[in-house]
Amino acid sequence: MNLIGPCATTLLIGTLLLLSSCAPVLNTAAQPGREQDTRVFTAALPTTPSIAGATLYKGLYAGEHGQASYLIEVPEKWNGKLVMYAHGYAGMGAALTVSPPALREYLVSLGYAWAASSYSSNYYDVRSGIEDTNALAQQFAALTQGKYAAPTATYIMGVSMGGNVAAAAVEAETLATARHKVNYAASMPLCAVLDPPYEFQWLGDYTLNAQELGGYGPSTSPASGFQTLLPDIKAGLFSDSSGDLWTPNTVQGTRLRDIALNLTGGPRPVFDLGFRVGALQDAVLSTGGSDGTLSGILTKNSYGNQGAVYRWTQGDTPTPAEVAYNQAVLRTTADPSANLPRADGLRWLPAIHAQFKVPVLTMHTLGDFYVPFAHEQHYLKMAQQNGTSGLLVQRAIRAAGHCEFVGPELVEAFNDWMKWASGGPKPAGDDVMTPGVVADTKYGCQFTRTTRPGVDPCTP
Fold it and tell me: Among 90, 87, 82, which residue's Cα sits nearest to residue 101?
C-alpha cells in the first residue's frame, strides 16, 4: 500500500506502513484501466439446502462488477441481530459461488440471522468483497421480502481474504470512502490478511529468496521463468517436494526456512511444521514471478525490497555471510502510485490501519505459511499507533494449516466476541508481540482446544 501527502510514513521491511488520523489525500489523476475491470464473472444461483428452524433466502443481486449470488438465513426465533459472513480467496476462475459459514447451524441455534455473498468478482478483489457484502447487508429487508424489521445490530466476520474484508470493513477510511456504507457493531477476522501490503511483500520476499538460495537468482524483476525453473529450485532446497510434508535438505534449504521464520513472526511453536506443509508451500511458490499488480487488481508494481535485510540467524547484527547474501540478492522498487486513495470509492486494495471504533477479535494459527502469524503482530502495532488496542483481542492457535480451526475454538471465539460486542467485558487474548512469550514451547495453549497431529500437546 502506498500513500501520498504528509500523512504517509514508510518504514523498512518487517515493520509497517502506518497512517495517522488525518484524512487520506485522494488520487484524482487519470489512471490506466485495470485488467480486473475487463474480466467477466458469472454468478451461479445457490443450491444450498434449508435447515430446520430457519428460512433460507437465496438468489442474485447487483454487485460491484455485475451480479453476485447471496444466501440469507433467518431463524424462526430471530433475535434481531445479523452476522455478515465474508468468504476467503476463491481463485481466478469466472464462476462465482456462495457458501454458508462454518458456524451456520450454531448461529441459527442462537437466533442470529446470517448473510453471505459470492462477491461479484474473483481474484484478490477486496474492494469488491467489501462493497458487495455491504450492499447485501443494506438489502436485507428487500431480499427477505419485507418480512422482518431492520436488524438491531449488524456484525461482520470472515476467513482469510474474507478476514481482510471483515477487518477493512470497520476501518475509518472505509467508512469515509465506501460507496455502500455499513456501521458494523463488531468485526471478527479469522486467519486474516490484516496487513495487505505485508502479505504481498511476504510472497515476493519468499519466492525471491527461494530462487536465490535454490541457485537460480533472478536478474530481473519480475523474475522471468520462475515457474519453469521451480522444479529445479525445489530440488536444490528440499529432499522431497512431492509429498504432504517437505524437508529442507541442504544448507540453503535450512537458510530459506530460517529466513521465512524471521519474516513471518519470529521463533514460535508449530512454525517448523507449517513450513513443511507441501500444500502451503505450493500455494506460496505459485506466486513466484508475479508482476506486483496482484494479478491485475492494481495497474502498477506494488512489490519492492529496497532496504530489506534477510536473516537466517537470531543475533542482533547480520553475520558476514548474511551481509554478503544481502548484497547479492536482487533489489527492486515498488511504484509509489500503485495503490493510492481514490476519488471513486475504496482503494483498489482497501487500506487497513487499525483505525476502528468497535470490538475486533482475531484468531490465527501459529504455523500458517500462506497468511503468516506476523499479520497479528503488524495489526497490533498499528492499533497501538492509533490508540485502538483496547478494542482488539487476538488469539493464537497451535495448528499448522491455514484457517485450521476446530469447532470448539470457533464457538468459543464467537461467544466471547458477541458477549463483548453486546456490552460485556473484554475477553482474554494472547500476547502476540513479546518475543520471549511467543517463542515459549507452550505458547498458544490458552485457546487451542484440540491437539493436531504433529503438534506437541498442551500438558501442564
Answer: 87
